[in-house]
What does this fold into?
Amino acid sequence: MTRTPIREPVPLDLTCNATPAVTGRVRLLIDRHLCDWGLRAERYADLHLIAAELLANAVRETPGRRIRTRCVPDFDAGVIRFSVWDSSARRPEANLPELTLESLDLREENFDANGGWGLPLVTALAVSCGVTPAHGGKWVWAVIKVESE
It folds into this structure.
């Protein structure tokens, strides 16, 4: 049975500490809100990846400080906007490493040092994305299409 998306959805709006655990919590809340909005969470892997990347950047930029997450559907426009606020004014930038088999470091202690692909992934998966300066920090956001249910 296909559910019709609700027209007056309650957005996800969460303020929390910037810790590595926040990503899992927000992903669970996104799934719950997608269901409440009449959407099937399993069809939104792109939203989960975007959320993980933007949250990881905010946590890295402002560890232990407060961050804010918003996820708001606009069914008339057929999109969902996911945003993360942090208190740093520094704009995120892609840090694409030149990886070769020789430069790829798979040692356990350096495994995460092979990153830098998050923002290009967000750009590739989103309809649009960007940064909006805000009082005391910035919002980093991405918009994805609502999947046909």
Summary: The mean pLDDT is 87. The two ends are 10 Å apart (CA to CA).
